[in-house]
Amino acid sequence: xxxxxxxxxxxxxxxxxxxxxxxxxxxxxxxxxxxxxxxxxxxxxxxxxxxxxxxxxxxxxxxxxxxxxxxxxxxxxxxxxxxxxxxxxxxxxxxxxxxxxxxxxxxxxxxxxxxxxxxxxxxxxxxxxxxxxxxxxxxxxxxxxxxxxxxxxxxxxxxxxxxxxxxxxxxxxxxxxxxxxxxxxxxxxxxxxxxxxxxxxxxxxxxxxxxxxxxxxxxxxxxxxxxxxxxxxxxxxxxxxxxxxxxxxxxxxxxxxxxxxxxxxxxxxxxxxxxxxxxxxxxxxxxxxxxxxxxxx
Length: 297
Fold this sequence. Notes:
Blueprint: H1 2-57, E1 76-82, H2 92-106, E2 112-118, H3 120-128, E3 135-137, H4 146-162, E4 167-177, E5 180-189, H5 202-209, H6 220-296
């Protein structure tokens, strides 16, 4: 009887775990839908504002802005790593950390390198390897707001304009579709490719836009002073949104796999329990029959 009871206790324990994983899967599915809507909307806006700068670049205007130019003697670089505050999301945090760690090793050749990490999992991973981050952010939730990212982007813009920052790399998980998300490390400052529209080569862009088509009021320079910094802020915000929706997808897939695994284990344990119980009942019947025959004999 002891074996059957042990199997029954294990089956009940796995059933309880299955309820948790199934609930987390449903929560991640609901949060994923909202996060994906925000990421898709931000993607359209990012492409449009990048296209606007591309229009200006090919309308006869010489695009010149401090954010578009590399510094003559670069000294300081910052690596911003976007991870999750929670686990149970498969290899989401691990894939970002591996790329971020490799880029951090490359930045070791710079005179000054700063490491900034968003998410408790990334902070713990770097500290485990004896690399304490210079800045830690844990207030970015599953739904990052533009106001929160704007504060961070404003500091980077100020430091880059003042010459205290020469390069900004961001390690995060890029979202393309429900079936495709992958970890990347992108350089956001300086904005070297802000004038490119989509995947069109420069010569195709020039043919596509076809010469001057704008009148600038009050001036082209004042427009660029607004558009270029906004382009950087939107791109950084898009990184946070991609990271958020990719996290929910990874957690949804991981919890779905855990639930299916629990179903399989419960089925196997139920079969083992039924066999053990049947064996015990058969043994007890044989003992009863044997005792009855001994009494009658």
